[in-house]
Structures are given as C-alpha cells and as structure tokens.
Design goal:
By secondary structure, the chain is mostly helical. It has helices at 3-39, 56-61, 71-76, 80-105, 115-138, 145-154, 158-187, 193-218, 222-241, 247-260.
C-alpha cells in the first residue's frame, strides 16, 4: 500500500478505533466494580450493570454506563472497607491493567509489520491513560465517584492521591509523547509533517481536552472544574511543545531508527 493510501486508511480508522477503544475500556472497568461488589456479597449478579441509552453523550463519553452498585446501602451495612475495594477495582485494577497490557502489546516488535493492529492497541492504551488522568488528576479532590469513595472508605488523603498520581501520570504522559507517538509516526510511515500534525493534535486533545470536557459535562466541584479548564488551556501548549518539526522530536525519530535499523524518515 502506498503512503497516501495508508494515511487515508489511518484517518478513516480513527473514529472507529476511538469508539471501540472507549467501550473496550469501559466494560472491564464497570464489570470490575460489579464483580467486586458481588464477591463482597452486595450484588446477586456480577454482570448486572447499567449500559445507558443510545445517545451521543453515551456513545462519545460513555457517561451512561454505570456499575449499578448501591454504595450508600453498603455503608449502612458497615461495609466501608468493601466500598473502598469496590471503587478501587475500576480505575486501579481494570483500567490500570488495560493500560499496562496495551502498552506492552504496542512495544512488541511484531507490531511494526501490523500497523493497523498497532493503531488499535495504541487507542486502547491512550484511552485508559486518558481515563486515569480523568480520575486521578481531575477528580481525586472530590467527595463522589471512584476516588471519592476510596478516600472516604479508607481515610486516604485526597492530596496524597493527587500528588502521587500526578507524578506517575506525568511519566506515563511523557512516555506517550516522547516515545509512543514517535513509534506511530514511523509505523504509520508518516513522512509528511501534515500527517504527523494530525496525530499530535488528535492525541493532545484526547489526553487533555477530552477528559476535561467529560468532567465539565457532569461535575460541578470547584477543583475539578478548575483543573478541567486548565487542561483545555494546556492542550494547544502540548501541541506546540511536541510539534513534529521541533528538533527534539526529530532527534527522537533518529534515535529510534538508529536503534531499530530502519530507514530515515524525512521530517
């Protein structure tokens, strides 16, 4: 396949993989909550979750799907530890595991010869990274949601979760923009700067503006709203810093090619 047709194929696959990755990631997250509640004896059916309605907000933001767990009832039964574990299972078991597994998959050498499969797993990877950013950076200082339940049930400091989470997610985000997206440029054979700009604008928005918009649609906490607005402002900053024409990005490509023995890609 010539490079222009490959570029068109990647653009066409983008909205498809976006939707697929959202739902591939959402189901394990919600089922993890539900199964944990079942294991603690607070649900009769571990697969009984709310799927939401078929509308644009649920399709694009998965804001209708829910684990269908009555945390207040569990609290009345004195199950504070169970509340923490049930809430923990979603972001810190299912979502984190999906992020780590997909990260490992896109590092396999065999993926270099399977560009579209690589692209799908990259979407799964960045979707779960975006979810972790949303939970830990944007919604950790709150009294509701998964992080609010964990912090309430176990007495964990909100600011400790926020600080440690920000440090770890900063490393993960830097890894994406300094390594994973460069891998994408090369595997997608993105020779033209316009093709690379498509990817950098797309994924900058997905990691920063997208989780911010999701929070702004449903969350009124001052901290979450403030952080979300900051993330919207940061989106163009990330694009500028990681612009494909910058010297450090070109150097990353050259370093990758030197390591892999590939041909030089013009930038």
């Amino acid at each position: 396949m010539n490079k222009s047709k490959r570029a068109v194929a990647f653009v066409i696959l983008t909205p498809i993989f976006f939707i697929l990755s959202l739902w591939v990631s959402a189901f394990p997250h919600e089922y993890a909550h539900s199964v944990a509640a079942w294991l603690f004896g607070y649900k009769l059916n571990p697969f009984d979750i709310d799927y939401g309605s078929f509308d644009w907000r649920n399709v694009l933001f998965v804001d209708g799907i829910d684990e269908h767990v009555n945390y207040f009832l569990i609290y009345l039964f004195g199950g504070r530890f169970a509340i923490g574990m049930i809430a923990f299972a979603g972001p810190f078991i299912a979502t984190s595991l999906l992020y780590l597994v997909s990260w490992r998959v896109i590092r396999w050498k065999k993926m270099e010869s399977r560009p579209y499969l690589f692209y799908f797993f990259l979407w799964v990877n960045v979707t779960n990274l975006s979810e972790l950013i949303s939970y830990i950076v944007l919604r950790s200082v709150t009294k509701h949601g998964d992080l609010g339940h964990i912090e309430f049930a176990w007495g964990v400091s909100q600011w400790l979760v926020f600080t440690v989470g920000c440090a770890l997610l900063s490393i993960a985000t830097w890894n994406f923009f300094s390594r994973t997206i460069v891998d994408l440029y090369l595997i997608a054979e993105a020779n033209k700067i316009s093709f690379k700009c498509f990817f950098i604008i797309l994924f900058s928005a997905y990691l920063f503006a997208y989780p911010a918009v999701r929070v702004l649609l449903v969350n009124n906490d001052l901290f979450s709203v403030s952080m979300s607005l900051l993330f919207c402002v940061l989106t163009p900053v990330i694009v500028i810093v990681c612009w494909p024409g910058r010297d450090w990005v070109k150097e990353r490509e050259r370093a990758y090619l030197a390591f892999s023995g590939g041909e030089v890609v013009k930038v």
